[in-house]
């Protein structure tokens, strides 16, 4: 499965690390554009100047680790596309240019299913997508989440509840599955 990762799913660290871990494990192929990566970096500014520097470092690592993920939509493609928020048309153009199967986003209102279906695409939300990956690859997804959880605890310098960590990452369904 080829998925365009919208900036809103790259921004939260725990979610991003789980998604990228799943991509590294070969469970799906991530796609993004320069504009999506730039939106993510700019969104971190509200957390302070160091957050943007950290995001740009993470972006450099993603570019290096997934050079095939960078999609360059053809000039003029966006002009024929329509979405409720014109600022999201570039994400749809990236999905079309990258031959994606779906766009992974929390932003359901701005990516109506009928608009995406007209282009042969789906909209997926992270929790359902990761739960589905876990359903087919429980050992791999569990190992990825365990590694992300351990790194979060290392950074925090204290134990963290996995359930709370995943809930903050907007992954309650995945959290419930992992606890079963």
From TrEMBL:
It holds the Pfam family PIN_3. Signal peptide: none annotated. This is PIN domain-containing protein. NCBIfam families: RSP_2648_fam_PIN (NF046100). Residues 2-108 form the PIN domain. It comes from Cereibacter changlensis.
């Amino acid at each position: 499965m080829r998925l365009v990762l919208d900036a809103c799913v790259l921004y939260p660290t725990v979610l991003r690390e789980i998604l990228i871990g799943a991509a590294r494990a070969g469970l799906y192929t991530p796609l993004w554009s320069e504009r999506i990566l730039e939106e993510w970096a700019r969104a971190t500014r509200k957390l302070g100047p160091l957050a943007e520097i950290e995001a740009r470092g993470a972006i450099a690592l993603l570019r290096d680790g997934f050079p095939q993920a960078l999609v360059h939509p053809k000039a003029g493609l966006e002009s024929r596309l329509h979405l409720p928020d014109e600022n999201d048309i570039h994400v749809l153009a990236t999905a079309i240019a990258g031959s994606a199967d779906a766009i992974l986003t929390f932003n359901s209102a701005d990516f109506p299913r009928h608009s995406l279906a007209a282009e042969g695409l789906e909209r997926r939300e992270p929790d359902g997508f990761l739960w589905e990956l876990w359903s087919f690859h429980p050992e791999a997804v569990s190992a990825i989440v365990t590694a992300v959880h351990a790194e979060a605890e290392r950074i925090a310098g204290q134990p963290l509840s996995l359930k709370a960590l995943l809930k903050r990452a907007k992954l309650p369904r995945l959290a419930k599955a992992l606890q079963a």
